[in-house]
Amino acid sequence: MRQQAEIELVFREMAEQVAIRLRRSGKKCQRVSIYALLAAGAPAFPFTHREKLTPLITAISWLKIVVQLFRSKYQGGAIRQIGVFTMTFCRSRI
Which of 7, 35, 73, 79 could pair with 48 in a Cys bridge, judged by C-beta atoms 3.0 to 4.6 Å apart? Predict the structure, then answer.
């Protein structure tokens, strides 16, 4: 469980950085995607997962969604590489 908590922390940090960049650029995204490449010999396969979002989403909701996506696909094992990225942008009204 400790390993999963540490991976979730890294996903949260990455998602927070993406949210900061979106906010600075005055944009919101309508899709978020995560990926994880597992280390050699891991019991599960690498995965990607994406979800459509409401553009009016808050930063806290954004972090929860990223962690939820990870939890829905992670089956254990050492992870070698992870990523968070966004797609389908729209302008934010600030």
Answer: 35
Separation of first and last alpha carbons in the chain = 40
Q: Rounded CA gap, 12 and 32, in Å? A: 13
Give CA angle at 53 (29, 1), nearest 5°: 105
Percent of the chain surpassing pLDDT 90: 6
Contact predicate 31/52, CB 8 Å: yes
H or E segment to which residue 36 belongs: strand 27-38
pLDDT band per the 50, 70, 90 thresholds, residue 10 = very high
